[in-house]
Design brief:
The protein has about 900 residues and is α/β, with parallel strands linked by helices. Strands 14-24-23-16-17-18-19-15 form an eight-stranded mixed β-sheet. The chain has an eight-stranded parallel β-barrel with strand order 26-27-28-29-30-31-32-33, surrounded by six helices. It binds adenosine-5'-diphosphate and magnesium ion (2 copies). The site of one magnesium ion has 2 residues, from loops.
């Protein structure tokens, strides 16, 4: 719209002139009312004052723009013509509601003022017109209360308290005051308003209207509204419209009432109208919760004609908007009036069912259906959902790291978690943070809670991988391992106490809160099938065990993008062999210790290849520094002290010898721990740097992979191994390892007289690797971006420590979001782009994927699509999210290449 020189700007649109496409100008409510009016639905007549008028009001120092008032007057006269009633008419007045309505739904804005136009005289007219004096005075009382609160800012509770006390003391006893009682109450309310605002509630209806419109404008910049916009990223300059509408009365008798309805069930999506109705009530009564509304079905019995009409309107509105609607309506003496329609909010499950049903009903296309379901909402469908009520005690809130919900008794130690789980107890493992040492406890627990760490901390990543509910970074929790309890302020939760963990919200709740199990239905499968047709990115899973791999396949993964091998060293007595390897004095002894682990690795890989029959499996060679395989230093020191103490009390020679042996052994371990300990393990001796220092490790792993591949291939399994070298910074590091991989694999093939095709590639997780990707691609056959480490090393942020200050960064707006959750597209993303371009410049068919946590994040997936990657790989339980997000990304890039 032109501004400035235009003399006669249209500030006011009667509902008959607007349309639902004019959301920006008329706001959501105004556009909906106009749409319903022009479609011929019963809407009380009225008009909308535009968002542009509101903007100009602010530009003009809170003065109504020129022409606004005369246009309002004209629109008002048209409503008088339509209704045959007059504003301020003492013999039967026209009354208005004044309602705010921005283009986006915005709680925190002004509430509606109803019954505007009443004063000591017109109230008599309303009484005469309706033949119901008590009703008229009740309406007047409501008006004074709302006007005092909304226009003059009298605290709601003050006016409410007075009205409630008077009503409670009323003679009538039916909640409706006698005329005399109302009259006295209104006077008291007016006195309070006068005392508070030093201004009286005006009698002149036009003055009432002017003040009400200004109050809506002003409410755009009240505290609540500003906070809400900030929190939800809504622009300050969209402004609100004002809707002025003739009143209809749901509070005019038993054949009247007010209600809300969804055209379909918003929690399941079932195509059955869903809602509530309250008879003989006006607007706010439903929300206020004074009387409990009836389910909408009750309307079918009480007023079948009205119900059928509503049902028909609901159908027609859906056909019109091609989406589920959320309706507000009022019945006035048996006549139905529509007061609002908008897009209905819904659960993930309902979103899917509604979208699929609407395609089948011919309302929308498959593309629409796929685009309508928010990818992240799919997670709700895969995990149990905690049904917390208002009475449930929230003990603490952390970061929701892995979705789902579970109840169990609190334990603080991994071994104990394992023992108690073996005894059939559900346990929740609570730790400061977790380490690979706690893995078995995490497997045993139903949920994991940590007081430190962010959403890519060890606990979070491992829990998501297992699809286990997890809350991390619960900073309020003080864990006390010694006393086996944790504190939140004064609240103490002891070992063995029941808690419920909600991984969807990050809440830790007291006791056993109910959860419901989700199930994947035909609607889900149908929608995902369409998504798969549209997407061009492949989706793989990060899976480390045959069971994970099988689960990933069931959820639609097209391969494994990251199989971490370190877990394979932790199970059972493998860790002993691993420690033996670490303690070994020379290469020969090391190789010997490793041969003990090799058979286990071989069987693990066979299981994974079988589960992924026909799909690629990317196996990453050992990554973590060796000291992670040794016991913790403090525990070892403690153990030695304890042994020495016992030595002092030992009775027999045999005991003394045994204790001395163990002390000796522990001290050797301690020396090794100290020798391997690093100031900064994240940047230390890990990744390919290990394989270079200890080539026996690489050799053993490759032998296991190649042997498993050959054995599976012999059984007819289609095996596609991709061997991945981690943490490469220099092309020469890669070449060094690649040479070992090829040599060992070839020797296995010779030994078995059979060969299997495989590729050797690298993770790009250091800036230097990204910058020299062309040199690396000379020998590397594929790249996989390890975006967790790449983020860490690009921004210089330790992902384990950054959770202390990153949330503050996001709150202050220094960064928009946590770069470990959603890719930093401008910084880290630039390196992804550079590495992709440079890599493909020497190897045009270079296969490139992502295997960091970002592989399951919809915004990051959209970025990876634009960069032109081949696949994303994410935690098993995020696979459906990634499939749908990849479809969205592909559809978006169709229009905007
Ligand atoms: P909200 O944005 O909070 O939903 P609304 O502007 O929709 O606020 O108004 C709230 C309620 O007030 C409506 O649901 C309806 O019950 C009542 N109301 C609004 N306008 C009218 C009207 N013209 N006649 C009768 N009731 C109305
Ligand atoms: Mg409201
Ligand atoms: Mg409403």
């Amino acid at each position: 719209m032109m501004m400035g020189l235009v003399m006669t700007q249209q500030w006011v649109y009667p509902f008959t002139e607007g349309s639902e496409t004019m959301r920006e100008l008329l706001g959501g409510k105004g556009a909906g009312l106009a749409g319903m009016t022009t479609a011929g639905f019963p809407v009380p007549p009225g008009f909308t004052i535009t968002t542009q008028a509101c903007r100009t009001y602010y530009d003009n120092d809170h003065i109504f723009p020129k022409g606004l008032w005369s246009q309002t007057d004209a629109a008002l006269s048209r409503v008088e013509e339509i209704t045959g009633k007059h504003f301020g008419d003492v013999s039967g007045p026209l009354l208005f509601s004044v309602r705010s309505g921005a283009a986006v739904s915005m709680p925190g804005m002004m509430d509606s003022i109803l019954n505007l136009g009443l004063n000591d005289e017109t109230v008599e007219g309303l009484a005469k017109l309706t033949g119901d004096e008590r009703f008229a005075w009740d309406s007047y009382r409501r008006f004074v209360q709302m006007f005092g609160e909304i226009v003059f800012g009298v605290p709601r509770e003050r006016l409410h308290a007075i009205a409630e006390t008077v009503t409670a003391q009323s003679e009538s006893g039916d909640g409706l005051l006698s005329t005399e009682e109302s009259r006295a109450l209104i006077q008291r309310l007016k006195d309070v308003v006068l005392g508070h605002a030093r201004t009286a509630v005006p009698d002149d209806p036009r003055e009432q209207l002017r003040l009400a419109i200004a109050a809506v404008f002003d409410s755009w910049t009240n505290r609540r509204a500003i906070d809400y916009r900030r929190l939800n990223g809504i622009d300050e300059d969209v402004y609100t419209a004002v809707n002025v509408q003739a009143m209809v009365f749901g509070n005019s008798g038993e054949d009247s009432g007010t209600g809300v309805a969804f055209t379909r069930n918003p929690s399941t999506g079932a195509p059955i109208m869903y809602g509530e109705f309250l008879s003989n009530a006006q607007g706010e009564d439903v929300v206020a919760g004074i009387r409990t509304p009836e389910p909408i079905a009750s309307l079918e019995h009480a007023m079948p004609d009205v119900y059928n009409q509503l049902r028909e309107i609901a159908d027609r509105l859906e056909n019109h908007y091609c989406d589920m609607q959320d309706l507000e309506f009022t019945v006035d003496h048996g006549k139905l009036w529509m007061l609002q329609t908008r897009r209905g909010k819904r659960t993930g499950r309902a979103a899917i069912r509604v979208a699929v049903d609407m395609v089948r009903e011919g309302l929308i296309t498959r593309v629409d259906a796929v685009n309508r379901v928010t990818a992240s909402r799919l997670e709700e469908l895969l995990h149990p959902i905690v049904m917390a009520g208002a009475d449930d005690e929230v003990i603490a809130t952390g970061l929701p790291a892995s979705p789902g919900g579970a109840s169990g008794v609190v334990v603080f130690d991994a071994d104990e978690a394992e023992e108690m789980a073996a005894a059939g107890k559900d346990v929740v493992l609570v730790r400061h943070e977790t380490s690979p040492d706690d893995f078995h406890g995490m497997v045993a627990a139903v949920a994991i809670v940590t007081s430190r760490g962010g959403v890519t901390s060890h606990a979070a990543v491992v829990a998501r991988g297992m699809g286990k509910c997890c809350v991390v970074g619960c900073a309020e929790i003080e864990v006390d391992y010694a006393d086996k309890l944790f504190r939140v302020g004064n609240r103490v939760v002891s070992h063995g106490e029941w808690v419920t963990v909600d991984g969807n919200t990050g809440q830790v709740l007291a006791g056993q809160v109910d959860t419901v199990e989700p199930e994947l239905d035909d609607y889900y499968e149908t929608l995902m099938g369409w998504a798969d047709e549209f997407r061009t990115l492949q989706v793989r899973a990060n899976a480390d065990t045959p069971a994970d791999a099988a689960a990933a396949r069931r959820l639609g993964a097209e391969g494994i993008g990251l199989c971490r091998t370190e877990h394979m060293f932790f199970e059972g007595d493998r860790i002993e062999a691993m420690r033996e390897m670490i303690m070994a004095p020379n290469a020969i002894a090391r190789a010997e210790a490793l041969t003990k682990i090799e058979p286990y690795q071989t069987t693990d890989f066979e299981g994974i290849f079988e589960a992924m029959d026909g799909f690629p499996v990317t196996i990453r060679l050992l990554d973590p520094p060796l000291h992670e395989f040794l016991p913790r230093r403090d525990e070892t020191v403690e153990r030695i002290t304890d042994l020495k103490l016992r030595l002092g009390h030992a009775q027999s020679l045999e005991d003394i010898n045994r204790l001395l042996d163990e002390i000796n052994e522990r001290e050797t371990i301690l020396r090794q721990i100290e020798r391997l300990s690093e100031v900064n393990p994240m940047l230390g001796h890990r990744g390919c740097r290990l394989g270079i220092a200890y080539p026996e490790i690489t050799e053993m792993q490759v032998r296991a992979i190649a042997t498993a591949a050959v054995r599976c291939a012999e059984r007819g399994v289609v095996v596609l191994p991709e061997i991945m070298i981690p943490l490469v910074a220099f092309a020469t590091e890669f070449q060094h390892q690649e040479e070992i991989v090829r040599r060992v694999a070839e020797s296995v093939f010779v030994q078995y007289g059979m060969r299997v095709d495989y590729t050797v590639g690298t993770m790009i997780e250091l800036p230097r690797a990204a910058l020299t990707a062309d040199a690396i691609a000379e020998t590397a056959e594929f790249f996989s971006f390890g975006t967790n480490d790449l983020t860490q090393s690009t921004a210089g942020l330790s992902r384990d420590d950054a959770s202390r200050f990153l949330p503050g960064y996001v709150r202050r707006g220094i960064i928009e979001h946590d770069p470990f959750q959603s890719l930093d597209q401008t910084g880290v993303g630039e390196l992804v782009q550079i590495a992709t371009d440079r890599g493909r410049s020497v190897r045009p068919d270079l296969k490139i994927g992502v295997c960091g946590e970002h592989g399951g994040d919809p915004a990051s997936i959209d970025f990876f699509q634009r960069v032109g990657l081949n696949y994303v790989s994410c935690s098993t339980y995020r696979v459906p999210v990634a499939r749908l997000a990849a479809a969205h990304a592909a559809l978006a890039s169709r229009v905007d290449p």
